Amino acid sequence: MEFSSKLLSNAVDEISRLPGIGKRSALRLALYLLKQPKEDTSILSKTLEKLRNEIDYCSKCHNLSEKKVCEICSNEKRNKKLICVVEDIRDVMAIESTNQYNGLYHVLGGIISPIEGIGPNDLKINSLVEKVKSKEVNELILALSSTLEADTTNFYIYKNLSEYEIKITTIARGISVGDELEYADEITLGRSILKRVPYESSISQ
């Protein structure tokens, strides 16, 4: 694909680096932006720059946050004795949209996947263990997707916490095997949270 403008070519190259966007889609987006008022593209540019420079991770749950502690963790109305363990921030958003959960979260930042070179030390598992050690938590809900890698991660967490007196549950299998949490509909996901079962029961199934 050849361009009459080096600036346009550079823009297409950068946009096409985004996931799911090829060169043709990147070109359409670049041409769309060129047709918009300069003020609009300037706002977009500043918003993206602000997003990258000012957003960080919550020091308690590892969710994205503009502050040291996110709004969920700092909300006094949330049940701080209940923690839902999820893979990433998209799962937090999915569960929050159900309006069926009022506890806190712990974002692992991924799941154990030897094929992709992701081991337990690459995830936020140690900080989860420390939370349990502090005896500030009564129950952990393992709310990972229904995949082999997620099941491996669940079992690893369960084994590492087995010596502590804490209730460990997992979401009910209203989510089809192989499905990712973020794509589940709100009603199914909400019911899976409410009808969670002891993790030991899920192992024997």
- Can you give the helix content as a percent range? 40-55%
Categorize the overall geometry. elongated
User: CA-to-CA gap between the ends?
Assistant: 53 Å
Q: Are there runs of 5+ residues with pLDDT below 50, and where? A: none
H-E string: HHHEEHEHEHEHEHEH
Mean pLDDT score, rounded? 88
- Give the helix tally: 9
Please state the second-level CATH architecture of the largest domain: 3-Layer(aba) Sandwich
Instruction: Predict the CATH topology of the largest domain.
Output: Dna Topoisomerase Vi A Subunit, Chain: A, domain 2
Q: State the total count of DSSP E strands.
A: 7
Q: Would you kindly provide a written description of the structure presented here, covering whatever features stand out?
A:
The chain has 205 residues and is of the alpha/beta class. The protein folds into 2 domains: 6-54, RecR Domain 1 (Helicase, Ruva Protein, domain 3, Orthogonal Bundle); 64-204, Dna Topoisomerase Vi A Subunit, Chain: A, domain 2 (3-Layer(aba) Sandwich). It contains 9 helices and 7 strands; from the N terminus they run αααββαβαβαβαβαβα. It has helices at residues 6-15, 23-35, 38-54, 71-74, 89-96, 126-133, 148-161, 186-194, 199-204; strands spanning 56-57, 64-65, 79-86, 103-107, 139-142, 167-170, 197-198. The strands form 2 sheets. The chain has a 5-stranded mixed β-sheet with strand order 4-3-5-6-7. It has a two-stranded antiparallel sheet with strand order 1-2. α7 links the parallel β5 (139-142) and β6 (167-170). α1 packs across α2 (23-35). The model has no long low-confidence stretch (mean pLDDT 88).
